[in-house]
Each structure stands twice: as C-alpha cells, then as structure tokens.
Amino acid sequence: xxxxxxxxxxxxxxxxxxxxxxxxxxxxxxxxxxxxxxxxxxxxxxxxxxxxxxxxxxxxxxxxxxxxxxxxxxxxxxxxxxxxxxxxxxxxxxxxxxxxxxxxxxxxxxxxxxxxxxxxxxxxxxxxxxxxxxxxxxxxxxxxxxxxxxxxxxxxxxxxxxxxxxxxxxxxxxxxxxxxxxxxxxxxxxxxxxxxxxxxxxxxxxxxxxxxxxxxxxxxxxxxxxxxxxxxxxxxxxxxxxxxxxxxxxxxxxxxxxxxxxxxxxxxxxxxxxxxxxxxxxx
Amino acid sequence: xxxxxxxxxxxxxxxxxxxxxxxxxxxxxxxxxxxxxxxxxxxxxxxxxxxxxxxxxxxxxxxxxxxxxxxxxxxxxxxxxxxxxxxxxxxxxxxxxxxxxxxxxxxxxxxxxxxxxxxxxxxxxxxxxxxxxxxxxxxxxxxxxxxxxxxxxxxxxxxxxxxxxxxxxxxxxxxxxxxxxxxxxxxxxxxxxxxxxxxxxxxxxxxxxxxxxxxxxxxxxxxxxxxxxxxxxxxxxxxxxxxxxxxxxxxxxxxxxxxxxxxxxxxxxxxxxxxxxxxxxxxxxxxxxxxxxxxxxxxxxxxxxxx
Lengths: 283, 307
Ligand SMILES: Nc1ncnc2c1ncn2[C@@H]1O[C@H](COP(=O)(O)OP(=O)(O)OP(=O)(O)O)[C@@H](O)[C@H]1O
Ligand SMILES: [Mg+2]
Known about the structure:
The complex is a heterodimer of chains A (283) and B (307).
Chain A: E1 3-4, E2 23-28, E3 33-36, E4 43-46, H1 53-66, E5 70-76, E6 91-93, H2 97-120, E7 134-140, H3 142-148, H4 152-168, E8 176-180, H5 190-193, E9 198-201, H6 207-214, E10 235-239, E11 246-250, H7 255-268, H8 276-282
Parallel strand pairs in A: 4-8, 4-9, 5-6, 5-7, 7-8
Antiparallel strand pairs in A: 2-3, 2-11, 9-10, 10-11
Chain B: H1 15-52, H2 57-80, H3 82-90, H4 92-111, H5 114-130, H6 132-157, E1 169-176, E2 179-185, H7 192-196, H8 199-205, E3 210-215, E4 223-229, E5 237-238, H9 242-245, H10 276-287, H11 295-306
Antiparallel strand pairs in B: 1-2, 2-4, 3-4
Pfam family, one (chain A): FtsK_SpoIIIE
Binding site for ATP (chain A): 47-54
Organism (chain A): Micromonospora sicca
C-alpha cells in the first residue's frame, strides 16, 4: 500500500504543542488536513473490530503526550492498544475496574476543585492562559468496563462517573475520548452516548450501527459507514467542528513510531515527574 | 430532455412524463398568448402616446397598434420557442466547444498541407492525452459536463417538482478528488429532503458510487450542493507529522521488565485460568457480591441484566 505524506504546512507541531491547539487526525477526501480541537470537546469512536479506532486514539494520545500542558489518563481493556504510552501517562489502567473507578473518582474530585477555583475567580471555563493541564481521558473499549468486567454495581458506577466527566469535564479541561465497537444502549446507556459531541464512525456492518455512532438519521442522508471498504482501515466519518460528517483517513502511527514518540514524551516531561537525576545522567 | 421538445408530447402517452409534458405544452401556449397581449397593449399604448406628440392622435394610435402588434408577436415567438432556447442554453458549452474545434480544424486544414495538419492534430490531441496530469484534468472536466446533464435528467425524469414542470437551475460544476461537486438552485416545489430520499437513484443516473446533497448556503434553503462520488481516494496510509518533530536520539525509557505470562496456548491451560487478567478478577469481584470462580458466566448474566 502506498503512503501519503501528511500535509505538514500549517500543522502546529513541536515541543511547544498545546492541548488547546488543533490536533491533526488525518486528511479528508480533498487531501486537506483535518484537525480537531479537543480541549472543550468529547469524542466517541465506534466501528467494527479492526476498523481503526485505536489508531485514532493513538493519534490523539501522541499529540497529548507531546503537549506541554497535558496529562494523560488511559483506560485500556486490551492493555496493548494504549500500552506504549504507559510511561508518559499519569495513570494507565488495564483490565481492572476497581482501579478504573479509583482514577475516575480522583478525576471527579479534580473537576469539582477546578470548578470551585473557576468560581472563585468569577470565570466559566479554563483557558490556555491558566497554566493548568488538560487531562485527556482516553478509554479504549468502554464496553469492557461498562458491560463486561466487574459486578453490575461497579459497572453502573463506572458509567455514572464517566457520564459525569463527559457532562461536566468539558469546561474544566478534562476531555474524554472513548472508543467502543458498537455503542448500543446495552453497552453504553444512551444518556452517556448522546453526550459526546464529536463522533468518528469507522467501518460498520449495518447502516443502523453507523447511525448509533454518528447519531440518528445520518444514514438516511447518505452518510453511512457501511460504504467504507473493509480493507480500508482507518477511514471514517468524522463529525467535528462542521457538524456534518466528513470522510477522513486517520493518520497512522506504527508501533515503532509510537515507541519513539512515547520515549521522547517521557523524556521531555521528565522534570515534571520526579526521578530526574537518573534521566539527566542518561541524557 | 424529452420535456424540452414540447411539440411532440402528444405522440407519447405513457407515464407521468407525458402528463407533465402536456401541462408544459398548455402552459407554454397560454403563456405565449398572455405575453402577446401584455406586450402588445403596453408597447402599443406607450408608442401611441409617444407618437401623439409629433402627429395626429388617430395616426399615432394606428402606429401604436402596429408597433404593439409587432413586439407582441416577437414576445409570442420568444415564449413559444423558449423550450428550444432552453435546450440550446443547456448545451451551450458543448456547442461552443464543437464550434471552436470545428473552426480550428477548418482553418488548419485550409492553411496547411495534409501531413502538417495531421501532425498538428496528433500533437494537440496526443500530448494532453499522454501527460497524466492533463489527461486526468480533461477527464474530470468532461465528467463535470456529463454530470450536469445527468442531474437534469434526474430532475426531469423522477424528481417531479411542480405543476408547470420547471426544473431546478443547475449551476456550475467542479471536479473534486472523489468525483464532482455541482451547485443547484431549487425552484418552488422541491426541498432537500425530497432529494435525500432519492440519492441512490441520483447516483445511478450519474454513473457514480454515491451521491450526497448538502446546503450550500446557511441563509437559503434553495441553494444546494451535490457531491457526486465515483472514486475512493482515502486508501493510502497517512503518516503523522508528529513523527518528524521528535528527536530520534532520545534515550529509550528503560522499563522494568514486566512479568511475562506463560501458558500461552490452549493445552497449557486446564481448569480455572490463572493468567494476568483473571488473577485480578477475584479482587474485583470480592468487592461485589459474586464469587470469583464463576466470573465468566456472571459476565454473561451482567450483560443480559443490563438490557
Ligand atoms: N489509519 C490507519 N491507516 C492504515 N491502517 C490502519 C489505520 N488504522 C488502523 N489500521 C490497521 O488496522 C488494524 C486494526 O486497527 P485498530 O487496532 O485501530 O482497530 P480497532 O478498531 O481498535 O479494533 P478493535 O475494536 O479490535 O480494538 C491495525 O493493526 C492497522 O494495521
Ligand atoms: Mg482497538
């Protein structure tokens, strides 16, 4: 398969990257770069197994890892999808719902504190000038925590905490990016699913599944992820700033590239995270 | 297209098309009569008034009637041949291109000997066809011409708009990497929702894979944009520019070697599994009410409970 070079002009990249910058996620059908600004948004990715959801999450994780004002909280039921970011993430949760609940409760407290702080300053939302980090929460395979592992009570608490983050985290700089194969009501309650503003639908097997991801009625208007070829992994319909689904191809990072970026990110955020001496010797 | 030749409609007598054509025909005759009367009266009166200032009023009245009748007749003819004019207008680009090419050919043939003529033609045709960029551009623009006609066929054949059978204005078309984009201005009687229900048929009529319709303007519901898609372009893998900004000489993070699980094949595993994920599960379920041993079956229960 051929490789298209990403249009780098105008792409804000570099060590001075910020989570308030537009994130490069791929190109659209016109060859134009596609950006999403995640600081005040939540994104839900859906699609059949092997569609490329984790590719999108890794793309966002790479930007977040290289951003100076960012913290990563990773919940990954499969361990390997986001596992390479473990060293530069503030929390990496594997298939363990107790730990997942703990970290979500911590995030909830942070969120409440930030709102109290904003209120004390007479403000309504966090901005880039506040020097507070954007805490990006990446959940790969929500269904694993919300419908598979743990007791029913724990699953419900997981959903409730996540819904709270999605509902209120936006203005406090805690965006949630979640991926799941089919976000139907038996996996994620509709009340949680409908709160995600941005949607990415990778290949789906039925127009109905596509509608579940993108929102009701898009398939009838001709936007259905069933027309993506099964071999064309990483192609998706994205609803972001424009409000209308756009056909995009997500930028893909190989394992080696991810390892390189993760090492670099770990290295540049070293002073902030302790055990610096050992690293300064290494550098 | 059949709609554009209203002199023949009564010869056909099947389907909705004929009905509309009959209507078009009647309304064309009525409009022509109306145009004749209106133009004749207004122009006649005006010219009579103007003429009266320089001659006897009765003479002026005659002159006015004459001029009115003449211009009324002109208006009548214009309205009656309007379908033909419309047809000519639809094919202006093609007619123009044909005329230019024909004229060029004639000039060339008249002024150069035959071998030179053939060489020039071979160059003019061959070079753009041989260079991939120009060839693709030519093909793309040709599709734009084709698609405008195909869209008009759609509107005329199965997207029946209003009683008088007026078609939407099909504005310009431009090539896109996936196909064409055509701008359309709807006439009363159609809406975007009507078109959305027929996108599959529009795609077929345009020999395309899929068709999409979008609002082209926020403030005007009549102004639409068709995206005709006939190619998949997003097949190449896209690289990330982030890869280029990192320092490749970064020291690799040295991680503590994680516990590498054994028992990686089915025969290695007997009864209740003791691998990494399940090891943590008893701790998980200890908080809940269920025993750890039956964790897999309780998962199934959980899913159905959830529904
Ligand atoms: N943007 C892309 N460009 C090219 N290939 C891709 C892209 N994204 C994914 N792929 C290919 O598809 C494979 C599966 O992708 P990925 O792991 O992201 O799927 P997924 O949707 O997360 O699947 P699952 O639901 O099983 O987790 C990858 O291993 C890769 O080979
Ligand atoms: Mg995945």
